[in-house]
Amino acid sequence: MSVLNILFVGSDEVARSIAKKSDSRDVDNYIYKDLKEGGLFSTISILRPNNYPDKPKPFFTSLTVSDFGIIEINKVDGVFGEVIVSMASAGIKEGLVILNASEGEWVDDSQVKALLQQAGLSNWEFIENDGILIREKLIEVLNQIKPNEDEGFVVAVDQAFTVKGVGLVAIGHVQSGKVNKHDELILAGSEGNAIARSLQVMDLDVEVANVGDRVGLAMRTAGPFREDLLGKGSILADSNERFTVESKSKFKLDKAAFQKNDLAKGDVIHLCCDLQFVVGRISEVSDFIHIDWDFPIVLNKTSKRNPLIVQLEANPRIMGFAKFN
């Protein structure tokens, strides 16, 4: 069934009013299952980055696996500005805004609406701070998701480890297509392959993991498969045709709203896409921005999300998104 992955910037209290907390690491995960006929269910999955804005990486990587946004606004400040321009750069065109002013603060809804429009989020809607009402709205969005018809699959890996009696396991997000039990798995940057011995979604054994699912893959490797390359930000796919691997790149930057800084030769930036957060240094700025990466990047040819360019010293830290040549 369908999955709606939502990036939520706000309090644990509000997130818990919408869905049940299921996991807590650098990103808290909250799940609500909307039961359908025949025991099937669709899923609302809320991702809430911990310690943002002090720790930006979980926020930016969560953008790369999210299709919808929710912002709880306590006050209008630079953090709010960074959040909305980052959402816009990531291509998250639909979302909800909750006005919940901090004590001693006042949030002007007309100012917020104007800033959303300037950032490129004019389709976002205001909603009351009511968990049931928010959940009902999210179910409406969930029910509008069309069945997946993409060929093959791409999985962005979040973590990998070895389990005694099971073997090598990777946990990640299905970014496109669907993965079947016993499918062949190709790891970007590695020779050899693997077979999906079993699949788990929400702690249930399944035969198929669909786009949007957070899936656990138990794998049996074959040939010179580089297990050391399997980890956060790595890419599993059904074919080498789904991606390219680059140690040098060139791209044009679609600059984020409110971003006044320009990139220059020698600048250090990060590419953020498909859970990757890779550092690189700009070697040339001409018609294109040329970059040398510290570690090879994987560009997902099937991705419907924008690859983000982040500069941690800038304000806001989101520079925009890259259009690769």
UniProtKB/TrEMBL annotation:
InterPro entries: EF-Tu_GTPase, Transl_B-barrel_sf. GO terms for molecular function: translation elongation factor activity. GO terms for biological process: selenocysteine incorporation. SUPFAM superfamilies: Translation proteins. It comes from the Archaea. This is Translation elongation factor EFTu-like domain-containing protein. It comes from Marine Group III euryarchaeote CG-Epi1.
